[in-house]
Amino acid sequence: MVSLKKIIPILTVTPLIATLGLTGFLATYNRDQTVHELSRNWMRESVNQIKSQVRINLRKPEMIHKLSLNPYHSNPSIWNDPQQLTLHFYNQIRLFSSINNIYFGYSNRDFVGVKIRDNGRFSQSYAGKETDYQLVTYTLNRGGERGQILNQNAVFNPTTRPWYQAAEKSNNLVWSPVYPDFTTRQLAITAAQAVRDRQGNLVGVVAVDYFLNSIHEFLRDLSISKAAKILIIQQNGQFIASSDPDPLTVLDPESETHLMITESPDPIIQGVGEMLIRQLSDFSLISEAQSLIFVQNNQRYLVWVEPIESQWNLNWVTLVILSESDVFNSGQNNRIQVFLMVTAFIGSILAVWNMNQLVVSPLLRLNTTAKKVKNQKFNPQKNIDLVKRNDEIGQFSRVFEEMAVLIQERQTRLEQRIESLSSYQKKANISSSEDSDRSPELNLSYWDKLKQKSQRIRQKNPIKND
After folding, report:
1. Which segments of 384-445 does DSSP mark as H helices, in order?
2. pLDDT reading at 465 higher than 50
3. How many CA atoms, within 13 angstroms, populate the side-chain half-sphere of residue 357?
4. Residue 172: DSSP 8-state
5. Do the domains at 44-57+214-327 and 59-210 have one common CATH topology?
6. What is the pLDDT of residues 219-277, one digit of tens each?
């Protein structure tokens, strides 16, 4: 026989546990899907903002070139006077932030450049017949006029420089790879464009050195959390900008080393770089946005990789690395979810215990009462609390008690009647015994008496044969 004590808790707790487990699984699955989708949307939006910021920043060198070319076509004499050209470059650097150096290399090997120094002051670099083509650096006052000599270097020929030769072969703006500036230790890029006269003859090449620190600061402000990492790299894997505070270059005694992503001091960034090389072989193969999963030390990271397309064909790639556990503080959400599930489980146990007290226990008491009724030990006072209940258990208890009392009364009357019949039978047996003592014939049956009488008659009057 199956006991209600076992079957009801099993039938109650099992569905609750199954429901809690399924609810927890669906909640975790939906949470992960929602977090991943929101993370991808955030990373996609971040990349769009990065692209927009890169275009805004790189338009500054482009605007400087336009401002330089327009004066040449309107007043070519400016380019023939080093002092006027110096003043023109000086005003442009003051107008545009993040511009470090503007210079012009003539086709006849002359060179004029204006640079802002680490101390915030300006200097002019000049090479020509006046200096025997040695590169001499002068101070500039607030009016942009040449001052004292700061240093004097060896002979300098701008026509042999990569930026000059690259721009000479093109009629468009030419961008150099990102490189570390030795004096400032900042990453910079050079934009160069050829200047030609109306006949198309090459006059020289104007170049602008643009620092990328503004993009670097933008990535730091864009980061959603401390665990999120946003990077821009060249297709050769070298850093351009990063939201991390770690330096992107390493200064050694001989030269400034531009770090690769696989050389990052951050193990997560380094691991992501190695993963991309394993999967893609070459960063130049990244032609469209991709979403990847990176796992390190049992921690999952969402990685978004997308090329930055521009009209300048820079071939830069942006990476967004987001810790899965850090997204919307999912660790705390896990604790809250576990707490809610434990609370629900304890609540279900209490509900089962309450059901046992309200339903199972009264039914078991009524079962015990039925046995007492059978054994004639029924006491209505012991179930008085069940009879007073106003629910179905109380109604059933009252009906059961009435039935038990009725059965008990009937059983009592039956016992009394049996006892009465038993007494009467005993009296009848006693009377019969007394008659037997007075005459043995009284113990004979009626038919025996008739038989004896018939024999006596035949003996007195025997029948004669014919």
Report:
1. 384-387, 392-438
2. no
3. 6
4. S
5. yes
6. 888 766 666 888 999 888 888 888 887 777 765 545 557 788 888 888 999 999 899 88
Domain definitions of the chain by residue range: 44-57+214-327, 59-210
If phi over 0 gives left and psi between -120 and 50 gives alpha, with beta otherwise, what is residue 301? beta
User: What would the two tokens of residue 412 be?
Assistant: 């009592």
Per-residue pLDDT at 301 exceeds 80: yes
Query: pLDDT tens digits, residue range 337-379?
Result: 666 667 766 766 776 666 666 666 776 776 777 776 666 666 7
Alpha-carbon distance of 221 to 22, in angstroms, equals 41
As a three-state string, the secondary structure of 183-225 is CCCCEEEEEEEEEECCCCCEEEEEEEEEECHHHHHHHHHHCCC
Regarding the domain delimited by 59-210, which CATH topology (the fold level of the hierarchy) does it fall under?
Beta-Lactamase (3.30.450)
Q: Of 307, 322, 222, 224, nearest to 272 (Cα)?
A: 322
CATH 3.40.190.10 fits 44-57+214-327, yes or no: no
Q: What is the DSSP letter of 149?
A: E
Token readout for 279 is 């999967």
Distance (Å, rounded) from C-alpha 52 to C-alpha 39?
20
pLDDT digits (tens, 9 = 90+) for 41-90: 777 888 888 888 888 888 887 777 776 666 566 667 777 888 888 998 89
Nearest partner of 276 among 309, 313, 236, judged by Cα: 236
Rounded CA-CA distance 323/301 in Å is 4
Across the beta sheet with 299-308, the strand order is: 239-242, 229-234, 316-323, 299-308, 290-296
Give the burial string for 20-38 (b: 16+ CB within 10 Å, else e): beeeeeeeeeeeeeebbee
Residues 6+ apart with CB under 8 A from 22: none
Tokens of 235: 């297709």
The token duo for 260 is: 């690769």
Percent above pLDDT 90 for the chain: 11
> The pTM is what?
0.60
Please report which confidence band the pLDDT of residue 135 belongs to, taking 50, 70 and 90 as the band edges. very high
Specify the pLDDT at position 122: 92
Using a 10 angstrom Cβ sphere, with 0-12 exposed, 13-18 middle and 19 or more buried, the burial of residue 340 is middle
What is the C-alpha end-to-end distance of the chain, expressed in Å?
A: 86
C-alpha–C-alpha distance, residues 326 and 319, integer Å? 17
> Is residue 188 scored above 80 in pLDDT?
yes
Element (H, E) at 155: strand 146-155
